[in-house]
Design goal:
single chain; glycoprotein; mainly beta; Jelly Rolls; six-stranded antiparallel beta sheet; 13% helix
Length: 406
């Protein structure tokens, strides 16, 4: 067999292996474990009151264990929810999949009363991680405390069928009102994603035609689950460790909003995008190792969410020492543009790639909003890709030579 035929055969096997890996990851994603009674449709036993306290007589909400000041609230129009007062805590144990996976939780919270906007916080804990999530009226609108805010939280890596204890506890700050509790909406969504992810695919979708993207999760398809009514998006708070970020492989600077296609917005690629909503402090950042002296092509989509922002978006993109600034005129039509340029690595060290909002923009209602980011792609130059291809062919030739001579 000639070296060319050998290279072709090796290429076929690589394609088959990539296809099998994609199939495996999609199977893992579709096998996400579920929390029991996540929508609170199963009420507490021996309870007939509109606001039953889960006290010593009613301590058990099916599949959830309650401690402290916890009430179950029946509503006819907005679904059921839990009220957590001072030291109120709910806990449930779930079983992780056999495969090692990243686990994420999506949930919604709301202040118990209008005077408690900036004191409403919940601590989400699992054995390996604890995160405090707070309601912020900066991202609400109108009658601020009447709005639910949806958040995405990273719960760590779990596998081998281990039992994981998840708890949510009221952790409100000191306030003049003793009954400043927190409401937790009747929707808890647990999601797991493969570990490690396959950066050349759209999560849950088709193979990306830019399979050589050097940036893992450049299309932001690996992130928190979206609730059924995902118009408002999912808030992701600041996280300086990309390995523990709800947006896999990306550091979060400030607060960003994870958004998906809905009647107000269509993602330019795949199902998810990122909106930079916290003004100048808002952004995302990742790292990649480059080769000194080599050229690369970097491209990014910058657009709008069609949410009536006022003003112009200003976005800065930095890759190592290369900086590009963009000004996007807001048209209110959910439009955007793809921008690309060449960069040259000046070292063999890890290079940071950051995308930052350089301005603060709000809607007519005074709600923070910002530019939408998607399709962040870094491609090696033709020369570097040719070197890599020759390397793989060389490895295949050596392997064949060893088989023949051995």
């Amino acid at each position: 067999m000639t070296s060319i035929s050998q290279a072709r055969a090796m290429g076929i096997w690589q394609a088959i292996a990539a296809g099998l890996l994609l199939l495996l990851q999609l199977l893992i994603a579709s096998a996400s474990p579920d929390l029991q009674n996540p929508d609170l449709e199963i009420p507490p036993t021996n309870s007939t009151y509109p606001f039953p306290a889960l006290d010593s007589t009613i301590k058990y909400l099916p599949q959830w264990f309650s401690q402290g000041d916890v009430s179950y609230v029946f509503t006819s129009s907005h679904g059921n929810y839990r009220y957590l007062g001072k030291n109120g805590k709910i806990t449930q144990e779930f079983k992780a999949n056999v495969e090692s996976s990243h686990y994420l939780l999506t949930f919604s919270l709301q202040p118990a009363r209008t005077n408690c906007d900036n004191t409403t916080s919940v601590t989400i804990s699992v054995p390996v991680r604890s995160v405090v999530v707070s309601f912020s009226n900066k991202f609400a609108g109108g009658n601020q405390s009447s709005h639910w805010q949806t958040h995405g939280v990273y719960l760590g890596i779990h596998g081998n069928g281990e039992l994981v204890t998840l708890s949510l506890e009221c952790s409100n700050t000191t306030t003049a009102f003793t009954d400043c509790g927190v409401r937790l909406e009747d929707s808890f969504i647990l999601k797991n994603i493969p570990n490690p992810i396959n950066s050349s695919v759209r999560y849950g979708g088709l193979v990306n035609n830019l399979q050589n993207n050097m940036l893992p999760n450049g299309g932001f398809e690996y992130g928190p689950a979206f609730p059924n009514n995902s118009v408002g998006g999912v808030l992701i708070d600041a996280e300086s460790d990309a390995t523990q970020s709800p947006l896999n492989q990306w550091e979060i600077l400030g607060t960003v909003k994870y958004i998906t296609t809905n009647h107000n917005y269509t993602a330019p690629e795949g199902k998810a995008s990122i909106e930079l909503i916290a003004g100048k402090s808002s952004g995302i950042q990742t790292s990649v190792k480059l080769k000194k002296g080599s050229e690369y092509a970097l491209s990014v989509f910058i657009g709008e969410h069609n949410d009536a922002c006022v003003g112009d978006f200003q976005v800065g993109v930095q890759a190592g020492s290369s900086v590009q600034n963009f000004t996007i005129q807001i048209k209110g039509a959910g439009t955007g543009l793809d921008s690309g340029w060449k960069i040259k690595s000046d070292s063999n060290r890890v290079t940071r790639i950051s995308i930052l909002s350089l301005a603060t923009t709000k809607s007519k209602d005074g709600v923070l909003c910002g530019p939408v980011i998607d399709k962040v792609v870094l491609l090696a130059s033709y020369g570097l890709k040719l070197q890599i291809s020759i390397l793989f062919v060389g490895i295949g030739f050596l392997a064949t030579l060893v088989q023949i001579t051995g």
